[in-house]
Amino acid sequence: MEKQVAIIGAGVSGLLACKYTVSKGFNPIVFEARNSIGGVWINTVETTKLQTPKPAYQFSDFPWPDSVTELFPNQYQVLDYLQSYAHHFDLLKHIKFSTKVLGIKYQGASDEEMQSWSLWGGNGEPFSSRGKWIVEAQDTQNQHSTEVYQVDFVILCIGRFSDVPNIPEFPPDKGPEAFHGDVIHSMDYANMDYEIARDFVRGKRVTVVGFQKFAMDIAMECSIANGVEHPCRVLYRTEHWHVPDYNPWGVPLPYLYLNRFSELMVHKPGEGLLLSLLATILAPLRLAFSKFVESDIKKKLRLAKFGMVPKHSFLQELNSCLIATVPQGFYDKVEEGSIILKKAPSFSFCKEGIKVQGEDTTLETDLVILATGFKGEKKLKDIFESKMFQDCILGSPDSAVPLCRECIHPRIPQLAVIGFSESVANLYTSEMRCRWIAELLDSTFKLPSIKTMEKDAEKWDQYLKQYSGRYYRRSCIGALHIWYNDQLCKDMGWNPKRKQGFFAELFEPYGPADYVSP
């Protein structure tokens, strides 16, 4: 009997999971809550562009069309590219649009039996004659209509940067309810039509909370709409090494951080003595690379002039997957006074606006936009109906999410997670993971014991805490993406070395095109 695979989400990861499971002879069903593909690219702010240079953000077997000449395409160009990919590989017929998954429930072994397993799923296989997943889905056009599906394997491609906004908590009577103006999340702003969004902020004193990409894009749009008459205030907690481009002092950034030589400078999970010794010896060079990039950013963006020089290193920014491209002209807007940067470790609301902790002056404002991110962990947890799975999927709050190869939870059978762990180019990384999952489903290889997988997750947790600091829960593999891909390649029986010649292998940057074929 044909095994049924369910994929939840039709963003980039969902499309890839669909394409590669189809290539192995499966007929997956893809659930998508919205009426189109694209995930986070469906709703963005008008000025948002791709964060990763185009060559690093492309499908290995489906390059960008020649008509897209920009290095950082805009929302429409990215959506067109994703649509073209879906049409080219005939993926749309597998997608159930406007179908929201309310929850998934495992039907098979009891919680006690699963806890006693030494192998994933009890047999180390992706499928089981005993176990099934029950998927409850709702028609978003008719919320009274729900359907139940029984499937053999679930691939979660629900992302971590959408749907569940992260709203800061405030003391009683000091939250948004105390404020006379409007408070929205960046998600609400992005969901507006471009013209409606412009009209919504025009003529208002706007405060944007946050300093990642969404916050900077929204601040730029507000400054364009209102100029110096009503400057946009940006409240931030931490300065960041946002980049003006990917060519510090004329050197392409991939030659500094996206080749094998750069990864020799980093201690790796489960590394041997030789690699450990090399990483220790090359530590000064790693620091020098970071200082080199930092000096370029400081000069181009005039960070010292605006008091925006971060206290942490660029390397930590990279290792935390927090790098964002600064909108063109952002600091020109700061200089002219249409954007005001204000450091605020914490703040609260009052009737007239915002009070920053430790200051008496009220920052009068009409509109507050919270660009404070999303609760991706809650989104992942809440899709499970089982209390046991809810408790174990995220692991301990003091450790990174314990996924083997950042895809498989050792204690949750017949299920994979794609797109939760981050990298410097998420499409590229998701494609490798989806190929790995497809090979696993096709029995090309088997997973090791649960204990072995858990020990491996612990080693990655130690690595993340060492290099990502307080951002370890982001599970960023940015500084070790080649090492990580090597593990996937070895599992699948591929040669991990993809370049021609010793020097090319060591110094040339790796990208999607290097993994076109096994």
UniProtKB/TrEMBL annotation:
InterPro entries: FAD/NAD-bd_sf, Flavin_mOase, Flavin_mOase-like, FMO-like. The keyword Oxidoreductase applies. Keywords: FAD, Flavoprotein, Monooxygenase, NADP, Oxidoreductase. The keyword Phosphoprotein does not apply. Gene3D superfamilies: FAD/NAD(P)-binding domain. Its EC number is 1.-.-.-. PROSITE patterns: PROKAR_LIPOPROTEIN. Pfam families: FMO-like. One of its GO terms (molecular function) is flavin adenine dinucleotide binding. Its cofactor is FAD. Belongs to the FMO family. This is Flavin-containing monooxygenase. It comes from Populus euphratica (Euphrates poplar). The gene is LOC105140109.
